[in-house]
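Sat 14:20. Reprocessing the chain from the morning session after the first attempt stalled halfway. Input below, unchanged.
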Amino acid sequence: MERTPSFRQLDPPTQARLLDLSVDYFYRRQEDFWRREALQKLPALKRVTNMLICGEDLGMVPACVSPVMKQLGLLSLEIQRMPKALGAKLFPPGKRSLPERRHAVHS
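Finished this time. Tokens:
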């Protein structure tokens, strides 16, 4: 959104308000919803299959995703060229998690 010509045409206070609305909608307001839905649906999914479950937790995901996946013992998708934290080393020594590690993705 911030890179669009129309956004750049807005005055700074309007830009700041629009960014705040975006963060509020995409991150704050939906956090509890996604946590509740995951804790209700994913345990049932785990009970009915003997397959390993890997969550695609890349990109714009609520902050609750990683803790819920850890709580439920779900694998995390780790892509070598896409570390989840800016500047982070992808596979640091001693990292204890449940990742599925890949070199690339389809996109």
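The chain is about 45% helix and 10% strand.
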